[in-house]
DNA sequence: GCGCTGGAAGCATCA
DNA sequence: CCTGATGCTTCCAGC
């Protein structure tokens, strides 16, 4: 175990020291670092909680076999991933089982890889030769074809633009890392079809050749180094990185704007992208960011996700491989490479270089550098304002994946966002300096509070950046939370990687009334091109600029269960341009009104224009516009931040039940606000106050009962939730949490969906007992591709894949964990978690079982169908296209639509 | 000198 | 294919 742990540690070390990381601040103080880096314990995380490791946990880990695996996670992930992937695909025929197909890609990655270890490991696992690193890469190229399925690429980013240049490959390599994350890996990438498409070949080759030149410096021999660099560079830190870029400058371009690749093809961030090519990374790039994060994440995944990953690995065939062999070689490689790393200056770099040995030793030595080294930190935790070392309440070995939908309240507990973040926050690129912490409308910062928790144990509040589209809440692929430090920051925090998502952990202290001021969280924008090329990524970044801050807390119960709560903020527009141009509705004075209309409603927001229009829209489930009308706007009372509109009469004055419609503010053809929900009430029915849902997208928003929103709202109970029903549908669980604990203030209007929002209806979808049931909504969606609205038309065919491939998709991973989880703490052991529940909802899926294109859901739930809504930013035409696709799908599938 | 911001240039993609 | 509108990234400059 220790060895493995050491291995892991190493990356971390690197991570810390080297990276100035995105957070420059992070680098600043040892203390901070300590916070930032999870102790080696992280390894334990899997076992214990998501957090900093506790010694006890650590021990546990050691004891449990699982733990060992966990420790290896990175490697394991990588390997694991491959294995899984292959397996996964096999059924589909996409990928031949063996690694071979994958190998080539791996090789490339290795070459460029930022992260030597993983790659090396992978290669090793697959092919001994691969271990050798760079040279190998070249050899494998042929297979590369299969490596990625061009089709998989996100539409948004046109591959073509990227050209064959190393970019793709490099990206992939970078992605690779991502993939490594346990959760993601196996399922992620259907998209990345193994099939070798010849098309890719060129790229591969190109990558090999072209990239090499650029990378040259670092590349070759020092792949490992490069990787290290990657780590180092990983920090992408804002400006700090830029200098590096400058170095690369030539390539990268410095000019800043866009440069052309050597090939002459327009160069997008290609080669340099940090992630992509390790070698480049240091120099290049700022771009590493994503990759780095990922890398970091990999290394850092101390959190629960780590556990999950570990579990996955276990489940997977290749698991064993993960930990072992790879590490050593990688280390060596790294070390060798390390020299190159030295350039970077980061102390951490050295660490990287060192092998497992380094782990402790280096660690110690380096630790001097940073006290809290992971390994050392583990045993010896540096004092900090907030003692992370404090035992965390989480007992559950496994925590819900980030893409799981959780309720905001459960039993006596309720997680509330007391102060919502501003609707606009310009995210910063890696190449930029931080743009500060997300602020609240009032000028302060968002505030989150946990109600109903009476214990004396502090808890950890997790924060990550989630999506704000109409689909299920999930980690946002293009944005990451960014830890802000400095004098102005009063809240301690530290970062951990969970899957490919950076998670900020913030203490929730009883002395603070379990209330946290979120002044330590900024938002980092990852380049679309980096993410879109990521293996398995199906989301598009273009115009996908809205996010939500997602808060989670895991509360251990005396009975051993863990209650996980989640609250998502109002949507936050992160694009500079969008923020300046798109109208945005923050508040509306009325959420519902009788069908007669005529009432004036005040809209508060931004970017309203004198000629702004307010359009009410009702759409059928199939996306057809059932009704659309423009409301009268009182221009006399116009303000850029407020509009007064007269609620138009509903088309049918005799409705017998509330009708959900939406409206948006339109400043022009392509400048629409996000849709706001509005409910027309039967004329004689007393008005019912409903919570506005900013998230609600009008696009494709079907006219449906509020509960449909629930689905959208992503309310979901995790198995972990005590409330959750064993069956997994958890409908009961939701219902059980219908009301907010007394004394709990009403949540802000657009606060995340409440538990009570979860209607039984939504849960039925879970299809208890159904073999095909997907614990994860995404999976569920995958199983019912037709039901989900593809992120983009291009993705239509990939809808299913999307869910599966989602980097964040963790549920599958989760299952094994859940099922296999260790004894006492494991959810499975919970009395409340009947075996059935475990099996049914969390049943682990074999690759073949996993939903995918080739395997349509065996039995679509006979549940109400909800249509996913597209981000409102998308053009109507685009949306219409999507809707059309959906309609087609629906027509081909018999689905029960709820009345 | 650094971090935080606002603004905007330059290039890519879309319509 | 051309052009204008939009979007995305990267820089710059001021506080």
TrEMBL record:
Record carries keyword Metal-binding: no
Ranges of Polar residues composition bias in the record: 182-208, 270-283
GO MF assignments: DNA-binding transcription factor activity, RNA polymerase II-specific; RNA polymerase II cis-regulatory region sequence-specific DNA binding
Record keyword Secreted present: no
Protein name in the entry: RHD domain-containing protein
Compositionally biased residues, Low complexity: 209-221, 795-856
Signal peptide: none
Superkingdom field: Eukaryota
Chain intervals for the UniProt region annotation (Disordered): 182-288, 765-875
UniProt domain RHD: residue ranges: 397-579
């Amino acid at each position: 175990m220790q060895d493995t742990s050491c291995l892991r540690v190493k990356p971390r070390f690197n991570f810390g020291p080297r990276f100035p990381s995105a957070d420059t601040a992070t680098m600043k103080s040892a203390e901070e670092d300590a916070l930032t880096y999870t102790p080696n314990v992280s390894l334990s995380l899997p076992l214990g909680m998501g957090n900093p490791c506790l010694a006890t946990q650590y021990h546990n880990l050691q004891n449990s076999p699982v733990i060992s695996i966990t420790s290896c996670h990175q490697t394991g992930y990588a390997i694991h991933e491959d294995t899984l992937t292959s397996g996964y695909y096999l059924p589909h025929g996409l990928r031949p089982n063996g690694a071979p197909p994958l190998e080539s890609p791996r090789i490339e990655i290795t070459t460029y890889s930022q992260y030597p270890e993983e790659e090396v490991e992978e290669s090793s696992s697959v092919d001994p030769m691969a271990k050798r690193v760079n040279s190998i890469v070249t050899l494998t190229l042929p297979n590369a074809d299969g490596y990625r399925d061009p089709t998989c690429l996100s539409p948004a980013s046109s591959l073509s633009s990227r050209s064959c240049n190393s970019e793709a490959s490099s990206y992939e390599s970078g992605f690779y890392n991502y993939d490594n994350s346990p959760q993601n890996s196996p399922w992620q990438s259907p998209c990345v079809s193994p099939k070798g498409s010849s098309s890719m070949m060129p790229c591969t080759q190109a990558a090999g050749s072209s990239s090499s030149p650029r990378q040259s410096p670092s590349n070759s021999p020092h792949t490992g180094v490069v990787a290290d660099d990657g780590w180092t560079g990983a920090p992408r830190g804002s400006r700090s990185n830029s200098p590096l870029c400058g170095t690369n400058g030539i390539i990268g371009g410095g000019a800043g704007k866009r440069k052309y690749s050597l090939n002459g093809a327009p160069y997008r961030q290609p080669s340099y992208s940090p992630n992509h090519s390790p070698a480049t990374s240091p120099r290049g790039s700022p771009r590493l960011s994503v990759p780095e994060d990922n890398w970091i994440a990999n290394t850092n995944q101390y959190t629960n996700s780590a556990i999950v990953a570990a579990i996955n690995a276990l489940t997977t065939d290749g698991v064993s491989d993960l930990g072992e062999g790879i590490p050593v070689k990688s280390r060596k490689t790294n070390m060798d490479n390390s020299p190159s790393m030295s350039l970077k200056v980061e102390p951490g770099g050295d660490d990287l270089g060192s092998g497992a040995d380094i782990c402790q030793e280096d660690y110690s030595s380096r630790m001097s550098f940073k006290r809290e080294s992971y390994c050392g930190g583990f045993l010896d935790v540096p004092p900090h304002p907030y003692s992370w070392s404090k035992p965390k309440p989480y007992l559950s070995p496994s925590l819900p994946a980030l893409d799981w939908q959780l309720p905001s309240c459960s039993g006596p507990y309720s997680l509330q966002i007391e102060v919502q973040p501003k609707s606009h926050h310009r995210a910063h690129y890696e190449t930029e300096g931080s743009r500060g912490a997300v602020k609240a409308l009032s000028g302060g910062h968002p505030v989150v509070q946990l109600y109903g928790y009476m214990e004396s144990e502090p808890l950890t509040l997790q924060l990550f950046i989630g999506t704000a589209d109409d689909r299920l809440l999930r980690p946002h692929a293009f944005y990451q939370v960014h830890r802000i430090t400095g004098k102005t920051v009063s809240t301690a925090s530290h970062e951990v990687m969970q899957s490919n998502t950076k998670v900020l952990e913030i203490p929730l202290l009883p002395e603070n009334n379990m209330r946290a001021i979120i002044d330590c969280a900024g938002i980092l924008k990852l380049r679309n091109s980096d993410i879109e090329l990521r293996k398995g990524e199906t989301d598009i970044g273009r115009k996908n600029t809205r996010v939500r801050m997602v808060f989670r807390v895991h509360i251990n119960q005396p009975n051993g269960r863990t209650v996980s709560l989640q609250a998502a903020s109002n949507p936050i527009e992160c694009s500079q341009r969008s923020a300046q141009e798109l109208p945005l509705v923050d508040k509306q004075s009325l959420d519902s009104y009788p069908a007669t209309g005529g009432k004036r409603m005040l809209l508060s927001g931004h970017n309203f224009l004198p000629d702004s229009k307010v359009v009410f829209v009702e759409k059928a489930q199939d996306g057809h516009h059932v009704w659309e009308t423009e409301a009268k706007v009182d221009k006399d009372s116009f303000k850029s931040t407020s509009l007064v509109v007269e609620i138009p009469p509903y088309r049918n004055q005799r409705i017998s039940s509330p009708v959900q419609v939406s409206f948006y503010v339109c400043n022009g053809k392509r400048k629409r606000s996000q849709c706001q929900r509005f409910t027309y009430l039967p004329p004689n029915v007393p008005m019912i106050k409903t919570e506005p849902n900013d998230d609600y997208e009008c696009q494709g928003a079907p006219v449906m009962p509020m509960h449909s929103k629930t689905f959208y709202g992503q309310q979901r109970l995790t198995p972990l939730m005590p409330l959750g029903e064993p069956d997994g549908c958890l409908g009961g669980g939701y219902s059980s949490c219908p009301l907010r604990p007394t004394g709990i203030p009403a949540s802000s209007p657009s606060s995340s969906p409440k538990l009570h929002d979860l209607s039984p209806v939504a849960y039925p979808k879970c299809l208890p007992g159904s073999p095909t049931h997907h614990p994860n909504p995404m999976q569920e969606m995958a199983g019912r591709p037709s039901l989900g609205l593809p992120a983009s038309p291009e993705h239509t065919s990939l809808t299913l894949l999307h869910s599966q491939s989602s980097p964040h998709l963790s549920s599958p991973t989760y299952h094994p964990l859940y099922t296999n989880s260790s004894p006492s703490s494991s959810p499975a052991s919970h009395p409340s978690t009947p075996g059935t529940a475990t099996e049914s909802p969390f049943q682990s899926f074999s690759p073949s079982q996993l939903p995918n294109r080739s395997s349509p859901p065996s039995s679509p739930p006979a549940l109400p169908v909800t249509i996913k809504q597209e981000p409102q930013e998308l053009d109507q035409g685009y949306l219409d296209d999507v809707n059309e696709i959906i309609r087609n799908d629906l027509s081909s599938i018999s689905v029960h639509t709820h009345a």
